[in-house]
Amino acid sequence: MEELIQRIEQVASETQFSGVISIFKDSSALHTKAYGYRDIKNHLPNTTSTVFGIASGTKFFTALGIGVLIDQGLLSLDTTISEISQEYTSFIDEDATIQHLLTHTSGIYDYYDEEIEPDFENFFVEIPWYKLETPSDYYPLFKGHSAKFRPGERYSYSNGGFVLLGMLIEKLTGSLYRDFIREHVLQVANMHRSGFYAFNDLPENTANGYLENRRTTNIYHLPLRGGGDGGMYTTTDDLRVFWDSLFSHRILSTELTATFLKTHHTFDTASGYGYGVQKRLDDSMFAIVGGDAGVGFDSRHIVPESLTINILSNITNGEEEMRDLILSYC
After folding, report:
1. 179: Cβ contacts below 8 Å, ≥ 6 apart
2. What would the pLDDT profile of 100-142 be if each residue is shown by its tens digit?
């Protein structure tokens, strides 16, 4: 571990890393340190309590929200879209299930298809970003489009699929997605500084997100407020308690937690995907990751050693070199 920490310091210096890197064993911090600035122009430094966006790391929290509905008996993994509503069946096959959506195999039309447009910093949609505050606001981006393929035909990473999961949470509960996730996932997990904050009303000590040029912020590159596929904010300490809450079955029932963490798609001989979470096939490591304009994020839990490793960066793709370094030791 000492060698890894020394290498973290070296790589942070070489890459001008901006953000927070933490290594926890159970509840004890083996290493936690902030680097760079949350506000570059005003020279306000990041701290270990700074709040960061996590981009697609949000998807696992959306998945867990769906899990809460399953535990409540409002859904099952085999529930089809047509059983919920016919209004969505123009852009997703009516036989697609909740399980298909959770595993990126539904074939839904994707408003942000990363197979077509991988450049976070130059992606825009027809609706002004400031009008996108909750998953249901995205509905016009789907309407009139056709599904990509039949459910189960293949894996295709889908932002649209997780936006739809957020829409379904709103439809089935009558609550805003962000309120439901806050009450039933974040508060239950004791993640008291985490949430879906608006760009024009961020809490104190929140990091600005910067494009790769490290001059321009991301406020004109992302929705006003996060939704089902991305945009949640959190801290390294909240992530530590999150992993503990997950494995202690405080968020979902014991049986459903095990189901969510099973391998449901295999990428290669070592890695795969559960429901909203990346994993090793031997169940030794689980990870939630995200990248977007002004965001680089990686949080993983190594089960045998009870280690949680968090990388939160407020630079586009700012986590990449540090992630590669840490994975070389894990």
Report:
1. none
2. 999 999 999 999 988 887 777 888 899 999 999 999 999 999 9
Three-class secondary structure assignment of the chain: CHHHHHHHHHHHHHHCCCEEEEEEECCEEEEEEEECEEECCCCEECCCCCEEECHHHHHHHHHHHHHHHHHCCCCCCCCEHHHHCHHHCCCCCCCCEHHHHHCCCCCCCCCCCCCCCCCHHHCCCCCCHHHCCCHHHHHHHHCCCCCCCCCCCCCCCCHHHHHHHHHHHHHHHCCCHHHHHHHHHHCCCCCCCCECCCHHHCCCCECCCECCCCCCECCCCCCCCCECCECCEECHHHHHHHHHHHHCCCCCCHHHHHHHHCCCEECCCCEEECCCCEEECCCCEEEEEEEECCEEEEEEEECCCCEEEEEEECECCCCHHHHHHHHHHC
Question: What's the one-letter identity of residue 196?
Answer: F
Instruction: Please tell me whether the overall predicted TM-score, pTM, comes out greater than 0.85 for this model.
Output: yes
Both tokens assigned to 247: 């494995």
Task: Return the closest-CA partner of residue 221 out of 208, 202, 207.
Answer: 208
Q: What is the mean pLDDT of the chain?
A: 96
What is the number of domains present in the chain?
1
Tokens of 228: 């089902």
Per residue in 178-219, pLDDT (tens digit) is 999 999 999 999 999 999 999 999 999 999 999 999 999 999
Per the CB < 8 A criterion, the answer to whether 297 and 313 are in contact is yes
Range of the domain at 207: 2-329
pLDDT of residue 1: 82
- Measured CA to CA, the distance from residue 68 to residue 109 in angstroms comes to 25
88-109 mean pLDDT? 97
Here the tokens at position 221 are 């590159």
Q: What is the CATH number of the domain that holds 6?
A: 3.40.710.10
